[in-house]
Amino acid sequence: MAGNSSRRGATRKAGSKKGATVGSGGQRRRALEGKGPTPKAEDRVYHPAHKRKVAAEKRTTTSGRPTAGASRSAAGTRGGRTSSTHEMVAGRNSVLEALRAGIPVTTVYLASRLEADDRTREIVATAAEAGYPLLEVGRAELDRLTDGAVHQGVALQVPPYAYAEPDDLLDTADVAGAAPLVVALDGVTDPRNLGAVLRSAGAFGAHGVLVPERRSAGVTAAAWKVSAGAAARVPVARATNLTRALQAYRQAGLFVVGLDAGGDVPLGELPYANDPLVLVVGSEGKGLSRLVREQCDAIASIPIASAVESLNAGVAAGIALYEVARQRTA
Predict the structure, then answer these.
(1) What is the maximum alpha-carbon separation in the chain?
(2) Which has the closest alpha carbon to 225: 55, 74, 94?
(3) Contact, 145 vs 109, CB < 8 A?
(4) Nearest alpha carbon to residue 76 among 43, 53, 110
(5) Torsion of CA 181, 186, 188, 193, to 10 degrees
(6) Mean pLDDT across 263-279
(7) pTM for this one?
């Protein structure tokens, strides 16, 4: 049998020519010529990246400067850097809360043959009204997308956040015609604290929030929810090195004031409130790091009733921003 198979494999039809090329590399070469490289995603009109690019361009002001709200679009921020991963929000309550909070959404996923209730009906209605893509998938695929989380047949994907550069925050203040007011976070790792800081920053007129790239909270779905929409209005910049970013701010004429329980100036006597200012908030447990503290022109403390109590970063930033706003409007 092996011999017969060998003979059949070696047989050629009469009149056929032995090809000059070996293998498949040279075959059908003419059919493959002229197609060129694949266009970028943002250049394909049917691709979501193209729609995001167009929307970001619409948010850009006529002067060529991006608006504060455009900071969350990669195409709309000068020198912006987009976070590298998408985030999944799973579960009916979590997805519904995210949609109600106005979190940006790439896709809403629904399991096949999903049992409807009031929450799922509102999810579908809200997503449809906002124009978010609705995609029906199998439960196995939804398990894979959510990494095994309890999704209850519903999940949504949050697009990567496009961070501004530290200098962009000064541009935002320049456009507003006000003395720059920036909040920097040192070692704050809870995204809910970042969301609370963003909410206070929006309420009291700060021009942006600065976070370090490493060992710091980022703009996740949790931060979006707590910010109550402020994450769409207040730009967040990411610094490769927070200490060097503060040095650059000082060289640009800003004063740096740190918040720490052991500060030598009470918050009611906060210096430089009417000047270009950076407020630095440390983590609840460790406070300000040594290198960051060395960059501060003053360290202010918030008087509290008990020495054993402490304020988290979101609360401390809100109180300090209120005091700055009070002095600036006095």
Answers:
(1) 101
(2) 94
(3) yes
(4) 53
(5) -10
(6) 92
(7) 0.68
